Structure formats: structure tokens, C-alpha cells
Amino acid sequence: MELHIEKDTKALSASLAEWINNYIQQVLAKQDRFTFVLSGGSTPKALYALLAESPYKESIPWEKLHFFWGDERAVPFEDSRNNAKMCYDELLNKVPVKAENIHIMRTDITPEESAAEYERIVKTYFEGSETTFDFVLLGMGDDGHTLSLFPGTEVIHEQNALATSFFLQAQDMYRITLTAPVVNDAACVAFLAAGAGKAEVLKQVLKGDRNVDLYPSQIIQPVKGQLHWFVDEAAAALL
User: What is the pTM of this model?
Assistant: First the structure.
């Protein structure tokens, strides 16, 4: 695991944008496509805004990138809580990505159908490959969750499905999510976490005893790939 600490969220976003650009170039020097799992939430917005501007708008070969999502709230695309909508608004509508290379978790069908469809898409891309996604961007909630793997939920321990759905009682909504095994088979995973509200849970996730039911982010441990944590000084205060 590699830990990257920056002064504040602005410096953090700038550092990660540069790192992602370099990583994309390295991967595409060896292969023809780059598969990128986007994260929802508020923290990545500044990162996406930077990637949508110069120099990255020009330097990244967007036509070779294929986009996926780690999880989704089962709300209409037009809903402000929809992760895909946020990513379109902040990034995808502003760069020359091919529409057929964007794979949202659909919310115009049932959550069960959406998860099953997503699993089929993922299998089509990666069946027979040593790794799955080239890059998975993850966030971490103040409660230690990542993807839609929330503390105390059965989905944390899902071993068979690549994508699944479930009703999250605490939020009174269905969630659609990739599971830990498909993310742990990725070539590279990066967490992005910022703010003093993350300090205690980040300390527990990185330095505390292993308890994935309490701190689900601990379950993300790439089998063959890289693991990076990009955090600001406020989040890293207790490390």
C-alpha cells in the first residue's frame, strides 16, 4: 500500500489528477484500452473538474478510455443523488469520450436487473484476463464504507457475484454495487479521502485491527494490483 498525503483538498485533487494522467499513459503504452471505475460522492468533483480541463483534456486519449461505476443509488438519472449524473456533469460531458465506452449502472430497470446486466458487461470485458479494471477510484465514508459496502451489511462478504443490489434500510433505498472480489482483482485501486471527519476512521482502516464488518474499506486489498491512498493532511492527522 502506498500513502500519498497532500496539504489540502485542492493540492490533493491536483496531485491525483497528475498521477492518473501518468498512469493512463503508462498503461496505454502497453495496451489499446484503459478501463476506469468512477466514484460518486462529493470528494471527487474537484478531481473530475481538473481532468476535464487543460492540460488533461488534451493529453489523455479519452477515446481509448472505458468508464464504469463502483456503485449507484437506485434513483432516476435526473436525480441529483445519482452518481452517474454527477460524473457526466463534472467530467464525461466535457471530454471526447465515446458514448459506447460508458457503462452506467442503470436505474430505469429494477436494481436486480441492473446488477445482473452489469455483471454481464464486466464478464464480457474481463473474462480470461488476469486482472479486471485498470483503475478503480474509491471513496470512503465517515463510517468506513466504500462502494455500497456499508458496516454490518451482508454484501461485504459477497464472494460469487461481481455486481449485486440490496435494500439499505438506513437510507430507505436500493443500492447497486460492485463487490469486493471484482475490485480486488483490479490492476490498481486508489482511495480518495479528505477532511477531518475521516481522520479517526482512516486511522482504524489503515492501522487498526482487521474488522471488515465495522470498517468495510479494509476488505479492499488488491490480489495482484496496486493499492494507493490519496488523503489530505486533515484526514491523515491521526496516522
Answer: 0.98
Residue type, 116: A
**CA 216 to CA 153: how far, in whole Å?**
9
Cα 45 to the center of its chain, rounded Å: 13
Residue 51 cell numbers, joined: 481532468
CB-based contacts of 208: which residues, under 8 Å, 6+ apart?
215
Task: Quickly count: other Cβ atoms within 10 Å of residue 211's Cβ.
Answer: 13
Q: b or e along 123-140 (b: 16 or more beta carbons within 10 Å of the residue's beta carbon)?
A: eeebeeeebbbbbbbbbb
Q: Which residues pair with 176 in a beta bridge?
A: 72, 165
CA distance 229 to 1: 8
| pLDDT tens track for 33-74 | 999 999 998 899 999 999 999 999 999 999 999 999 999 999
Rounded to an integer, what distance in angstroms lies between the CA atom of residue 25 and that of residue 27? 6
Query: What does the pLDDT look like over 180-214, one tens digit per residue?
Result: 999 999 999 999 999 999 999 999 999 999 999 99
